[in-house]
Automatic annotation (TrEMBL):
Pfam families: Glycos_transf_2. This is Glycosyltransferase involved in cell wall biosynthesis. It comes from the Bacteria. InterPro entries: Glyco_trans_2-like (IPR001173), Nucleotide-diphossugar_trans (IPR029044), TPR-like_helical_dom_sf (IPR011990). It comes from Paenibacillus favisporus.
Amino acid sequence: MITISLCMIVKNEEHTLERCLSSVSRAVDQIIIVDTGSTDGTRETARKFTDDIHFFDWIDDFSAARNFSFSLATCEYVLWLDADDILQEEDQMKLIRLKESLDPRTDSVTMLYHLGSDPYGNVTVQLRRNRLVKRSRGFRWIGAVHEYLEVSGRIVDSDIAVTHRGDDRNRDRNLNIYLRKLSQKVEFTPRDTYYFANELMDHHLYEMAVFYYEKFLNEGCGWVEDNIAACGKLADCYHALGNRSKELLYTLKSLEYGKPRPEFCCRLGFRYMEQADWETAIFWYRQALEWTAPKSHWGISNQSYATWLPHLQLCVCYDKLSQYETAYEHNEAARHYQPEHPSVLGNKTYLESRLKRNDIPPRESISDD
């Protein structure tokens, strides 16, 4: 059975750290906490779980802090988490079973990262990350902000999920780091440019965000998933700026990087709905439902665009075409995911009344198309 060192960097996490460590402590053999300057009770909370607590002088570089934490590990494998992450009980048990069964020749184990969920517990936003790595390989973190762990060799994709339970307490931190580096004339990598644009967009600095997203795409050196995401974010920026032609341009540009993704199909579907072109809107919403993510999909994905949302919009489109039974079927499919959504419930009442007037019994059991 392998052994695992959990390595974490923290700052002012007294409200989240205990929840995180409680969710993973049974599955690891060593807990290393690197504090980058807490002024609250973070270290006292950490001492409930470990005495392996260290201080790192913060230098606006997440990779430097993470690499320092990794250098302190002594077990065969290193697991990393942030203080606002947790392992659900079933995922902690999966990790324990993985310890017992993992081939020691494995260099890295990827895990899902659940970033959002709806009120019914359905995961809506997720991606995949290298999460457990072999210490002897000496893998390093790269990038001052939005850092990534560069790995190679034998990689195993697991079904273990880390669940993010964060908040916006530090929402200005990353943007300020990038702005300081920009003022210092630090050369940005393509990845830096992309994530800097993300921070600008998140702060509603749309025109500046557009400049850096377009710079990122024009350089032609980005990861394909970041290229696709940048197209979507540019469409969002231009929508916010009221430029519908540029919004469409970048929606379509996403097709340069691969087959249509659900979020772009839904964008196009909505555009044609606005034009009352119901047949074309139906085509694009059906395309969204046909998307099947690869088993080892690394890009961020929002499941809403491939599940309930296109079904809900198809309900509207078929209603406009007076195809009430099909509209009802799609609304029921949406209700499977969103049983209490006001629009879904309103549609159900309206369509059942419509079908009753037309003497067409509504179907109570339908497929997901």
